[in-house]
Amino acid sequence: MRSRHIPFIFAVSLVLIFVLADLNHAYVDPVYQDGLNLLQLDLQKQGFTSEELTNVFSDSRFQVYPHIVGKTGKGMNYLSKRFGLLSKDSINRGRGILARYAASLKDAEQIYGVEKEIIVAILRVETNFGSAMGTYPILNSLATMAIIENRRSEWARKEVAELLKMCKAQQRDPFTIQGSWAGAFGISQFIPSSYVNYAVDGNGDGAVDLLTMSDAVASVANYLKSHGWAKDDSDGKWRAVYAYNHCDNYVRAIFAYAEALARQQVQ
User: Fold this and answer.
1) Rounded to the nearest 5°, which phi and psi values hold at 183?
2) Quick check: pTM over 0.85?
């Protein structure tokens, strides 16, 4: 005897199948759909197939973060007591990095002409030597800025393309790269285009991994040299650090921390 409950059970099962299938796809608020469509059209012009883009932007891990649009770090006071950059503990940690990675820092100085204290200062301010690299999937951060029209949109579209090209070449899942809300990642906080153009292999293992201190050290030095750092050119040094982060307070903080490290070594 056939149970009259079977059709009901079958219908419920179908609903569950469709619900579960839908859970594996990204939900994008309709208000952002036009922006996402424009981003995908732009990426297609740069060589990505519609299938590749569908695989990325229909992934359940894809999200839009409207709260990051309009954010800026321009008001950050890196030399404030709250930030603690020049505290005794902060200086001691910097000295520890100088000692622990002395070989990598020496190589960077010799190859790129950038003082080790400056490199350490940048790594301190950017991520506290890798302890605060950010937890945003940077694809989502960059795509958000590309999708929601703002002053960073054009820049963000280019960075999304660079990120996807990088991941395709390295066969990496773009959602696994985490970093800041602004789309920077690694100990040195490079955006994708900076990684492509300036990140280098610092330990000779054949890979460029900004989660590795030796690679982060060499990459910072290469970036600064590529942006005008020169041993006896104070203006060139300032411009190079400013290129890393377009903020005068940031540049002052980098030089102040580097000078504090140098004084500690002389004593």
Assistant:
1) 95, 15
2) yes
